[in-house]
Amino acid sequence: xxxxxxxxxxxxxxxxxxxxxxxxxxxxxxxxxxxxxxxxxxxxxxxxxxxxxxxxxxxxxxxxxxxxxxxxxxxxxxxxxxxxxxxxxxxxxxxxxxxxxxxxxxxxxxxxxxxxxxxxxxxxxxxxxxxxxxxxxxxxxxxxxxxxxxxxxxxxxxxxxxxxxxxxxxxxxxxxxxxxxxxxxxxxxxxxxxxxxxxxxxxxxxxxxxxxxxxxxxxxxxxxxxxxxxxxxxxxxxxxxxxxxxxxxxxxxxxxxxxxxxxxxxxxxxxxxxxxxxxxxxxxxxxxxxxxxxxxxxxxxxxxxxxxxxxxxxxxx
Length: 317
Fold this sequence. Notes:
Layout: H1 3-24, H2 28-51, H3 61-79, H4 83-105, H5 111-129, E1 140-141, H6 155-179, H7 181-191, H8 193-198, H9 203-223, H10 225-229, E2 231-232, H11 234-237, H12 240-253, H13 259-278, H14 284-298, H15 302-316
Antiparallel strand pairs: 1-2
Helix pairs in contact: 1-6, 2-6, 2-9, 2-12, 2-13, 3-4, 3-5, 3-9, 4-9, 6-7, 7-9, 12-13, 12-14, 12-15
Protein backbone atom coordinates (compact mmCIF):
# COMPACT_ATOMS: atom_id res chain seq x y z
CA UNK A 1 0.00 0.00 0.00
CA UNK A 2 1.41 3.38 -0.99
CA UNK A 3 2.28 5.79 1.81
CA UNK A 4 -0.51 8.22 0.89
CA UNK A 5 -3.22 5.58 0.92
CA UNK A 6 -1.84 4.06 4.11
CA UNK A 7 -2.02 7.46 5.82
CA UNK A 8 -5.61 8.00 4.65
CA UNK A 9 -6.66 4.56 5.90
CA UNK A 10 -4.97 5.04 9.29
CA UNK A 11 -6.47 8.49 9.89
CA UNK A 12 -9.90 7.38 8.67
CA UNK A 13 -9.78 4.46 11.11
CA UNK A 14 -8.68 6.83 13.90
CA UNK A 15 -11.59 9.22 13.27
CA UNK A 16 -14.03 6.31 13.08
CA UNK A 17 -12.70 4.93 16.35
CA UNK A 18 -13.12 8.30 18.06
CA UNK A 19 -16.67 8.69 16.74
CA UNK A 20 -17.76 5.20 17.81
CA UNK A 21 -16.16 5.17 21.27
CA UNK A 22 -17.18 8.68 22.34
CA UNK A 23 -20.80 8.06 21.40
CA UNK A 24 -21.20 4.51 22.74
CA UNK A 25 -18.71 4.06 25.62
CA UNK A 26 -19.58 5.81 28.87
CA UNK A 27 -17.12 4.04 31.17
CA UNK A 28 -14.53 6.60 32.28
CA UNK A 29 -11.88 3.96 32.94
CA UNK A 30 -11.97 2.83 29.31
CA UNK A 31 -10.69 6.24 28.22
CA UNK A 32 -8.09 6.38 30.98
CA UNK A 33 -6.70 2.93 30.19
CA UNK A 34 -6.86 3.48 26.41
CA UNK A 35 -5.08 6.82 26.72
CA UNK A 36 -2.23 5.15 28.63
CA UNK A 37 -1.89 2.28 26.15
CA UNK A 38 -1.91 4.65 23.15
CA UNK A 39 0.68 6.84 24.86
CA UNK A 40 2.96 3.82 25.07
CA UNK A 41 2.29 3.02 21.40
CA UNK A 42 3.70 6.44 20.50
CA UNK A 43 6.68 6.09 22.86
CA UNK A 44 7.51 2.59 21.59
CA UNK A 45 7.18 3.70 17.97
CA UNK A 46 9.37 6.74 18.60
CA UNK A 47 12.02 4.71 20.43
CA UNK A 48 12.10 2.16 17.62
CA UNK A 49 12.96 4.79 15.00
CA UNK A 50 16.29 5.32 16.75
CA UNK A 51 16.75 2.02 18.59
CA UNK A 52 15.29 -0.49 16.13
CA UNK A 53 15.70 1.05 12.69
CA UNK A 54 18.99 2.84 13.40
CA UNK A 55 20.51 0.55 16.02
CA UNK A 56 21.22 3.19 18.69
CA UNK A 57 19.80 2.28 22.11
CA UNK A 58 18.23 5.26 23.87
CA UNK A 59 17.84 5.12 27.66
CA UNK A 60 16.58 8.71 27.83
CA UNK A 61 12.98 8.28 26.63
CA UNK A 62 11.65 9.80 29.85
CA UNK A 63 13.69 12.95 29.22
CA UNK A 64 12.02 13.66 25.87
CA UNK A 65 8.62 12.70 27.30
CA UNK A 66 9.17 15.22 30.11
CA UNK A 67 10.29 17.92 27.69
CA UNK A 68 6.88 17.68 26.05
CA UNK A 69 5.09 17.65 29.40
CA UNK A 70 6.90 20.64 30.84
CA UNK A 71 6.61 22.61 27.59
CA UNK A 72 2.85 22.36 28.06
CA UNK A 73 3.19 23.43 31.70
CA UNK A 74 5.17 26.53 30.71
CA UNK A 75 2.70 27.50 27.98
CA UNK A 76 -0.31 26.98 30.22
CA UNK A 77 1.28 28.94 33.07
CA UNK A 78 2.16 31.88 30.83
CA UNK A 79 -0.70 32.02 28.33
CA UNK A 80 -3.32 29.40 29.31
CA UNK A 81 -2.50 27.90 25.89
CA UNK A 82 -4.94 25.30 24.50
CA UNK A 83 -3.90 21.66 24.30
CA UNK A 84 -3.11 21.55 20.53
CA UNK A 85 -0.63 24.42 20.96
CA UNK A 86 1.03 22.50 23.78
CA UNK A 87 1.26 19.40 21.57
CA UNK A 88 3.00 21.25 18.73
CA UNK A 89 5.32 23.11 21.09
CA UNK A 90 6.24 19.99 23.04
CA UNK A 91 7.09 18.16 19.81
CA UNK A 92 9.22 21.07 18.53
CA UNK A 93 11.13 21.50 21.82
CA UNK A 94 11.85 17.77 22.10
CA UNK A 95 12.89 17.66 18.42
CA UNK A 96 15.38 20.51 18.92
CA UNK A 97 16.84 18.87 22.02
CA UNK A 98 17.01 15.58 20.12
CA UNK A 99 18.88 17.31 17.30
CA UNK A 100 21.32 19.01 19.69
CA UNK A 101 21.86 15.94 21.82
CA UNK A 102 22.33 13.83 18.70
CA UNK A 103 24.96 16.19 17.34
CA UNK A 104 26.90 15.90 20.61
CA UNK A 105 26.51 12.16 21.24
CA UNK A 106 26.01 10.34 17.93
CA UNK A 107 29.73 10.05 17.36
CA UNK A 108 29.61 7.64 20.30
CA UNK A 109 28.50 4.09 19.65
CA UNK A 110 27.08 1.15 21.56
CA UNK A 111 27.07 1.36 25.32
CA UNK A 112 28.72 4.80 25.31
CA UNK A 113 25.77 6.33 23.45
CA UNK A 114 23.31 4.58 25.81
CA UNK A 115 25.10 6.01 28.85
CA UNK A 116 25.09 9.48 27.27
CA UNK A 117 21.29 9.38 26.82
CA UNK A 118 20.89 8.27 30.43
CA UNK A 119 23.08 11.18 31.53
CA UNK A 120 20.91 13.57 29.50
CA UNK A 121 17.84 12.36 31.37
CA UNK A 122 19.52 12.92 34.74
CA UNK A 123 20.68 16.42 33.76
CA UNK A 124 17.19 17.43 32.67
CA UNK A 125 15.67 15.90 35.81
CA UNK A 126 18.02 17.96 38.02
CA UNK A 127 17.19 21.10 36.02
CA UNK A 128 13.42 20.61 36.38
CA UNK A 129 13.62 19.79 40.10
CA UNK A 130 15.35 23.11 40.70
CA UNK A 131 13.12 25.21 38.38
CA UNK A 132 10.55 26.89 40.60
CA UNK A 133 8.58 28.33 37.68
CA UNK A 134 7.28 24.83 36.79
CA UNK A 135 6.83 23.83 40.41
CA UNK A 136 10.22 22.27 41.03
CA UNK A 137 10.12 19.10 43.11
CA UNK A 138 6.60 19.85 44.39
CA UNK A 139 5.11 19.78 40.87
CA UNK A 140 2.49 21.91 39.10
CA UNK A 141 -1.27 21.73 38.58
CA UNK A 142 -3.11 22.21 35.28
CA UNK A 143 -6.91 22.34 35.41
CA UNK A 144 -8.56 22.50 31.98
CA UNK A 145 -11.98 24.05 31.45
CA UNK A 146 -14.65 21.62 30.29
CA UNK A 147 -14.24 20.84 26.57
CA UNK A 148 -17.90 19.90 26.01
CA UNK A 149 -18.09 22.65 23.38
CA UNK A 150 -15.99 20.46 21.09
CA UNK A 151 -18.64 17.76 21.18
CA UNK A 152 -17.03 15.69 23.93
CA UNK A 153 -18.68 14.90 27.24
CA UNK A 154 -15.58 15.68 29.30
CA UNK A 155 -11.87 16.40 29.12
CA UNK A 156 -10.93 12.72 29.34
CA UNK A 157 -12.74 11.99 26.08
CA UNK A 158 -11.19 15.05 24.48
CA UNK A 159 -7.64 14.02 25.45
CA UNK A 160 -8.34 10.42 24.40
CA UNK A 161 -9.39 11.67 20.95
CA UNK A 162 -6.22 13.75 20.63
CA UNK A 163 -4.12 10.74 21.68
CA UNK A 164 -5.79 8.58 19.01
CA UNK A 165 -4.92 11.14 16.34
CA UNK A 166 -1.33 11.47 17.61
CA UNK A 167 -0.97 7.68 17.58
CA UNK A 168 -2.19 7.55 13.99
CA UNK A 169 0.32 10.26 13.07
CA UNK A 170 3.22 8.41 14.73
CA UNK A 171 2.31 5.16 12.95
CA UNK A 172 2.22 6.91 9.58
CA UNK A 173 5.59 8.57 10.23
CA UNK A 174 7.20 5.28 11.33
CA UNK A 175 5.96 3.37 8.28
CA UNK A 176 6.99 6.14 5.90
CA UNK A 177 10.50 6.16 7.36
CA UNK A 178 10.79 2.37 7.10
CA UNK A 179 9.80 2.14 3.42
CA UNK A 180 11.58 5.31 2.29
CA UNK A 181 15.15 5.92 1.21
CA UNK A 182 15.77 7.28 4.71
CA UNK A 183 14.73 3.93 6.18
CA UNK A 184 17.07 2.03 3.90
CA UNK A 185 19.89 4.32 4.96
CA UNK A 186 19.09 3.81 8.64
CA UNK A 187 19.03 0.04 8.09
CA UNK A 188 22.50 0.28 6.55
CA UNK A 189 23.70 2.17 9.62
CA UNK A 190 22.17 -0.46 11.90
CA UNK A 191 23.68 -3.41 10.02
CA UNK A 192 27.21 -2.05 9.57
CA UNK A 193 27.86 1.65 10.07
CA UNK A 194 31.48 1.55 8.91
CA UNK A 195 30.52 -0.23 5.69
CA UNK A 196 27.72 2.29 5.15
CA UNK A 197 30.15 5.20 5.54
CA UNK A 198 32.55 3.59 3.08
CA UNK A 199 29.67 3.22 0.61
CA UNK A 200 28.93 6.94 0.75
CA UNK A 201 25.92 6.86 3.08
CA UNK A 202 25.72 10.17 5.05
CA UNK A 203 25.49 8.32 8.36
CA UNK A 204 25.70 11.31 10.72
CA UNK A 205 23.01 13.20 8.83
CA UNK A 206 20.69 10.20 8.85
CA UNK A 207 21.27 9.60 12.56
CA UNK A 208 20.48 13.25 13.31
CA UNK A 209 17.20 12.93 11.44
CA UNK A 210 16.47 9.79 13.44
CA UNK A 211 17.13 11.42 16.83
CA UNK A 212 15.12 14.50 15.85
CA UNK A 213 12.05 12.57 14.70
CA UNK A 214 12.24 10.16 17.63
CA UNK A 215 12.53 13.03 20.11
CA UNK A 216 9.65 14.92 18.49
CA UNK A 217 7.28 11.96 18.78
CA UNK A 218 8.25 11.34 22.40
CA UNK A 219 7.72 15.01 23.23
CA UNK A 220 4.36 14.88 21.49
CA UNK A 221 3.36 11.88 23.64
CA UNK A 222 4.29 13.74 26.81
CA UNK A 223 2.68 17.07 25.88
CA UNK A 224 -0.84 16.01 26.94
CA UNK A 225 0.30 14.27 30.12
CA UNK A 226 -0.11 17.32 32.43
CA UNK A 227 -3.59 18.01 31.05
CA UNK A 228 -4.58 14.36 31.48
CA UNK A 229 -3.24 13.95 35.03
CA UNK A 230 -4.03 17.60 35.96
CA UNK A 231 -0.75 17.48 37.87
CA UNK A 232 2.85 16.80 36.92
CA UNK A 233 6.01 16.47 38.99
CA UNK A 234 9.54 15.33 38.09
CA UNK A 235 9.43 11.88 39.71
CA UNK A 236 6.41 10.74 37.67
CA UNK A 237 7.37 12.36 34.37
CA UNK A 238 10.96 11.08 34.55
CA UNK A 239 9.72 7.69 35.79
CA UNK A 240 11.84 4.60 35.19
CA UNK A 241 8.76 2.79 33.88
CA UNK A 242 8.58 5.17 30.90
CA UNK A 243 12.13 4.38 29.79
CA UNK A 244 11.80 0.64 30.51
CA UNK A 245 8.48 0.27 28.68
CA UNK A 246 9.73 2.29 25.71
CA UNK A 247 12.53 -0.25 25.27
CA UNK A 248 10.66 -3.42 26.23
CA UNK A 249 7.64 -2.92 23.97
CA UNK A 250 9.59 -2.79 20.66
CA UNK A 251 11.75 -5.70 21.82
CA UNK A 252 8.67 -7.83 22.52
CA UNK A 253 6.84 -6.78 19.36
CA UNK A 254 9.85 -6.75 17.04
CA UNK A 255 12.29 -3.93 16.37
CA UNK A 256 12.85 -4.21 12.62
CA UNK A 257 9.29 -3.35 11.58
CA UNK A 258 6.98 -0.38 12.16
CA UNK A 259 4.27 -2.82 13.33
CA UNK A 260 6.41 -4.45 16.04
CA UNK A 261 6.30 -1.59 18.57
CA UNK A 262 2.54 -1.24 18.09
CA UNK A 263 1.95 -4.93 18.83
CA UNK A 264 4.29 -4.90 21.81
CA UNK A 265 2.78 -1.71 23.27
CA UNK A 266 -0.81 -2.91 22.92
CA UNK A 267 0.03 -6.33 24.40
CA UNK A 268 2.18 -5.14 27.28
CA UNK A 269 0.18 -1.98 27.95
CA UNK A 270 -3.10 -3.90 28.14
CA UNK A 271 -1.60 -6.48 30.51
CA UNK A 272 -0.30 -3.69 32.75
CA UNK A 273 -3.68 -1.96 32.86
CA UNK A 274 -5.44 -5.23 33.76
CA UNK A 275 -2.90 -5.99 36.50
CA UNK A 276 -3.16 -2.45 37.84
CA UNK A 277 -6.90 -2.75 38.50
CA UNK A 278 -6.89 -6.39 39.66
CA UNK A 279 -3.65 -6.75 41.64
CA UNK A 280 -1.37 -3.72 42.00
CA UNK A 281 0.56 -1.32 39.78
CA UNK A 282 3.70 -2.32 41.71
CA UNK A 283 3.71 -5.55 39.66
CA UNK A 284 3.99 -3.73 36.33
CA UNK A 285 7.78 -3.51 36.14
CA UNK A 286 8.11 -7.13 37.29
CA UNK A 287 5.80 -8.23 34.47
CA UNK A 288 7.83 -6.20 31.98
CA UNK A 289 11.04 -7.81 33.20
CA UNK A 290 9.68 -11.35 33.06
CA UNK A 291 8.22 -10.91 29.56
CA UNK A 292 11.40 -9.25 28.36
CA UNK A 293 13.56 -12.15 29.58
CA UNK A 294 11.19 -14.69 27.99
CA UNK A 295 11.11 -12.96 24.61
CA UNK A 296 14.84 -12.26 24.52
CA UNK A 297 15.46 -15.94 25.28
CA UNK A 298 12.76 -17.62 23.18
CA UNK A 299 12.07 -15.03 20.47
CA UNK A 300 14.98 -12.58 20.05
CA UNK A 301 13.26 -10.95 17.07
CA UNK A 302 9.96 -10.49 18.90
CA UNK A 303 6.46 -11.32 17.76
CA UNK A 304 7.12 -9.99 14.26
CA UNK A 305 10.04 -12.41 14.06
CA UNK A 306 7.59 -15.27 14.58
CA UNK A 307 5.36 -13.81 11.87
CA UNK A 308 8.27 -13.51 9.43
CA UNK A 309 9.32 -17.12 10.04
CA UNK A 310 5.73 -18.30 9.53
CA UNK A 311 5.56 -16.42 6.22
CA UNK A 312 8.88 -17.93 5.14
CA UNK A 313 7.65 -21.46 5.90
CA UNK A 314 4.46 -20.83 3.92
CA UNK A 315 6.46 -19.66 0.91
CA UNK A 316 8.71 -22.72 1.05
CA UNK A 317 5.74 -25.08 1.31
